[in-house]
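Record 1 of the preview.
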Amino acid sequence: MKRAQIVLLAADGRSTRSIAKEVGVQPRIVSLWRHRYADHGLEGLQDKPRPGKQPIYTKTTDKRILKLLDKPSPQGFARWTGPLLAEALGDVDVQYVWRFLRNHKIDLAARKSWCESNDPNFTAKAANVVGLYVAPPAKAIVLCVDEKPSIQALERAQGYLKLPNGRALTGQSHDYKRHGTTTLFAALEVATGKIIATHSKRRRRVEFLDFMNSLTAAFPGRKLHVILDNLNTHKKNEDWLKAHPNVQFHFTPTSASWLNQVEVWFSILQGQSLSGTSFTSLKQLQEHIDAYVNAYNDRAEPFVWTKKKVRQRRFKGRRITQL
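->
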């Protein structure tokens, strides 16, 4: 567009400087296109071929990198890295490999994980559990029960660290002293969100049934629907169930313990109460957990079971295979 303006203004007899000022370019640019047009006409306004260095790497190189990523990593290595790819290709610089991976948003270090249930009755079991959440039976108590085993009472040096730049951080030493472990049995009441918990040295069937006895005592005369995962100690308790006809067990599908709401609470417990703490005895750990349970129950609210649209990016042109 500017080239055409320069030629038309020059045909009107305008000076090079006045044309440059009006078009908004340097006078040398006006001189260039005036001479080009004078010597070659309209063809002179076209760009001339610009010779340059031929690219070392082409689309063929890119295809070679992608093809190599589909192959297993070298023996002894968990995954491909930029240097390993460059070494396997032999004639491609590692900097180009990294640049190619960045441009195509391929992160060799990031890992995806998934869990697929092979339970043939997954739909029926999941619907049963979710049904207890969204429409619990009238005048019945729905409890989510599970154990958090082997919680360690670790004693670590802790405090504030002041960095040379003046910033202060909380920190703890890598060294620790172990004071034993405790297993926490917990039941989450779905209607209120409150927790009933007790400590045990082990997580055998006898400890599980002792905890169930304490739950029946906490809700005398009430019908209890108990949601459990598929741990062996949770199953084959027919004799105990016959002695407690007001209790009914509901099991989550295989490899789907995430359907049990008490697992969500265990995650909250770990993040808000256990991570980054230090204990000088097992008793101190147990008292610390009990204090957190009491504080949690003071403000407990039921979890809201919702369903929303799942948005997941597909692996375009990629196939996940089990090695």
